[in-house]
Amino acid sequence: MNHKNFAQQIIALKKADLALRDKLIQSGHLNEGYDPDMQTLHNRHAEQLEIIIDTIGYPTIGKVGIEANEATWLIIQHAIGRPIFMKKCLKLLEIAVKEQQADPKNLAYLADRIAIFEGKTQHYGTQFDWDEKGQLCPNQFDNLALVNQRRKSIGLNTLEEQTEILRKKVQEEKQMPPKNYEKRMQDIAEWKKSAGWI
């Protein structure tokens, strides 16, 4: 079955997502809470992707190609207001990775993101946020040696190397830490409750 049309739809969703992110970086609003326009876009894209998944199953490399498969993961990764959908997709992505129809790195990122939203430790150290000193740091993880071992097993660099790369990236993008760390943490906690993560 030819899923080219679905592949094009998924890639278009990814492009719209990244365009809005770039706009928010340029305006300096990316780290000032969950932007309402971004939230609306993420939820709409999750709904559209869910319809596609219900129609063709998980968009694996074999079905939609590498680019649309990667775009699928990005849309799921950003569907943070839809915990049930993200968890459903995690199970589907696990199967796709076992069948070598998706990148294990994407599975690591999605599993870590869900863990962080649920208040658990991440296993691959893929999720970062600003700390109280205004430094970009990995979210809570269990053990550095184990994290680096897991990262190596799927072809990721060390957590120390990734931290350095991401800190340089936010500098290049002129991203700034939140103006009020305590308020940000409070807003995140309230948002997690309202979204159904905790």
Please tell me about this protein's structure.
The protein is mainly α and 198 residues long. The protein has two domains: 1-102; 121-198, no CATH class. The chain is 66% helix and 3% strand. The chain has helices at 4-27, 36-56, 61-77, 83-98, 104-117, 144-153, 159-172, 181-195, and strands spanning 128-130, 136-138. It has a two-stranded antiparallel sheet. A hairpin with a 5-residue loop joins strand 1 and strand 2. Helix 4 packs antiparallel against helix 5. The radius of gyration is 17 Å and the shape is globular.
Write the layout of secondary structure elements.
Elements: H1 4-27, H2 36-56, H3 61-77, H4 83-98, H5 104-117, E1 128-130, E2 136-138, H6 144-153, H7 159-172, H8 181-195
Antiparallel strand pairs: 1-2
Helix pairs in contact: 1-2, 1-3, 2-3, 3-5, 4-5
Shape: globular
Q: Tally the helices: what do you get?
A: 8
* Averaged pLDDT: 95
Q: What summary fits the major beta sheet?
A: 2 strands, antiparallel
- Whole-number count of domains: 2
Cα radius of gyration in angstroms: 17 Å
Classify the secondary structure makeup into a structural class.
Answer: mainly alpha
Strand content: under 5%
Binned, the helix content reads 55-70%
Query: Which spans have pLDDT < 50 for at least 5 consecutive residues?
Result: none
Count the E strands.
2
Helix and strand string, N-terminal first? HHHHHEEHHH
Measure the end-to-end span.
40 Å
Strand order of the largest sheet: 1-2
